[in-house]
Amino acid sequence: MTASDATVLCQIDRAVALLTLNRPDKLNALNYSLIDRLTRLLDAVEADDGVRVVILTGAGDRAFSAGADIADFAPSVRSGAATALRDFVQRGQRLTARIETFPKPIIVAVNGLAYGGGSEITEAAPLAIGSERAKFCKSEISLGFAPPFGGSQRLPRLIGRKRALRMILTGEPIGAWKARDFGLINEVVPHDSLYDEAFHLAHVIAEKSPLALAACLNSVTRGINLPIDEGLAVEAGHFARMVPTKDIEEGISAWLDKRKPHFTGA
After folding, report:
1. Domains delineated in the chain
2. Which residues is 189 bridged to in the sheet?
3. What span, in angstroms and rounded, lies between the C-alpha atoms of 75 and 156?
4. pLDDT average, residue stretch 127-152
5. pLDDT higher than threshold 70 for residue 4
6. What is the pLDDT of residues 173-212, one digit of tens each?
7. Could you tell me what percent of the chain has a pLDDT over 90?
8. Which residues, in sequence order, are bridge partners of residue 108?
9. 196-203, long-range: CB within 8 Å, 24+ apart, which pairs?
10. Catalytic residue of the set 46, 100, 140, 235
11. Which terminus, N or C, of the chain has the lesser number of Cβ atoms within 10 Å?
């Protein structure tokens, strides 16, 4: 494993891929190498039919991610707008868009600080569980810029315009319980139980049809910002594509036979 590869670790066990941001000495700050490595791993996980759910977390006991690595992106900013947009903003936006539209469920297990880009990754993921020690902060304003990885767009959609603007304009952190009440994460669990809870949720989901999971994710992600009639058309289209599959036949047959279904993704 090269130093670049070590920025994100990957472990696969029983249909669940655990991806760990691995720069604990830097609070798992998102440098270019880490972002590129995580993007490559997501590509590999998508292509692996044995993986049905992804858990994304951070190494160490202090942070999921403290955000973008300032020392890494500062030279891009100082090189001008074109370089900053190409190297920094577009790279980060591609990552969060990849997470948001990923065809397999991603669960972010927030084990500590989720500041800046760390919060933006959490906002983009379909599911998130927070340790009681988790904290979320839109810290970009203190560096003199607006959230660049999608945070100015996703956070208001998740928690409401006024709550989001309070976070974005002040840079004040919020704790895990408030993040749950706002809808930024699904639930808060004791710190020592975070990974057990994340894996439990992952294994519950992994038993479902992977085709139906992808359909659900795409229907919600695409439809949430569409007029209701267009969203319903997206939903109907996914159902139509499920009709000829073995998974829908297996699900219906198992229910009628009063047995547990076994989905193959076919």
Report:
1. 5-206 (3.90.226.10), 210-257 (1.10.12)
2. 131
3. 30
4. 97
5. no
6. 999 999 999 999 999 999 999 999 999 999 999 999 999 9
7. 96
8. 56, 128
9. 197/129, 198/55, 198/57, 198/107, 198/109, 198/129, 199/16, 199/55, 201/107, 201/127, 201/129, 202/16, 202/53, 202/54, 202/55, 202/105, 202/107, 203/14, 203/15, 203/16, 203/53
10. 140
11. N
Q: Does residue 197 carry a catalytic annotation?
A: no
Please choose, from the candidates 118, 21, 141, 130, the residue with its C-alpha nearest in 3D space to the C-alpha of residue 67: 118
CA angle 106, 145, 179 (to 5 degrees): 40
Check 120, 187, 207, 250 and give the catalytic one: 120
Q: Give SS3 for 145.
A: coil
Single-letter residue type at 94: R
CA distances, 151 to each of 133, 137, 140, 183, 262 (Å): 22, 11, 10, 15, 38
Cβ contact 37:30 at 8 Å: no
**What is the C-alpha separation between 84 and 73, in angstroms, rounded?**
8
Two tokens, residue 89: 């903003």
Distance CA 103, CA 101 (A): 6
CA distances from 55 to 127, 154, 244 (A): 10, 20, 30
Residues in CB range of 208: below 8 A, 6 or more apart: 263
Verify whether residue 187 is a known catalytic residue.
no
What 3-state DSSP class applies to 178? helix
Task: Please state, in angstroms and as integers, the Cα–Cα distance from residue 70 to each residue in 66, 116, 254, 257, following that order.
Answer: 10, 11, 53, 58
Q: Which residues of 27-37 are buried (b: 16+ CB within 10 A; e: fewer)?
A: bbbbbbbbbbb
* Rounded Cα gap, residues 65 and 108, in angstroms: 11
